[in-house]
Design brief:
InterPro entries: RibonucZ/Hydroxyglut_hydro (IPR036866). The protein has one domain: Metallo-beta-lactamase, Chain A. 27% of the residues lie in helices and 15% in strands. The protein has a five-stranded mixed beta sheet, sandwiched between helices. A hairpin with a 4-residue loop joins β3 and β4. The longest helix is centred in the C-terminal third of the chain and has 16 residues. It starts with 16 loop residues before the first strand and ends with a helix.
Length: 112
């Protein structure tokens, strides 16, 4: 894994790693559904690709209402909740967010 995460004004929410040393792609580690995920922030596109942080952005409002069985499926529910809160904050700040299980139509619309 990457050990050189640093503060970056382009992504003030968490420390990141400048993959190409040109600020075009920042790697951000966000635990969620699984541990140690590499998410990507693309500053020029104002886009955060959140891998498997949550099951889908459409489900973010329901994170705290998750029943006991789905909570047990998460690697660590508290990390899942924190990752979901980060995604909600990004969306609130008008950053586009995509996760692995988002609907194809949503992903296509964002990537246009």
């Amino acid at each position: 894994m990457i050990d050189n995460y640093k503060e970056n004004s382009l992504f003030p929410y968490k420390n990141s790693f400048d993959l190409f040393s040109d600020l075009s792609m920042l790697i951000v580690e966000v635990d969620g559904h699984t541990k140690g995920q590499a998410c990507l922030f693309l500053p020029e596109k104002n886009l955060f690709i959140a891998a498997d942080v949550c099951w889908g952005t459409e489900f973010l409002p329901f994170t705290d209402k998750m029943k006991w069985l789905p909570r047990k499926i998460q690697n660590n529910f508290e990390d899942y909740r924190k990752g979901s809160e980060l995604l909600k904050k990004l969306i609130e700040d008008n950053i586009s967010v995509i996760v692995s299980h988002d609907k194809k139509e949503k992903i296509i619309e964002i990537l246009k």
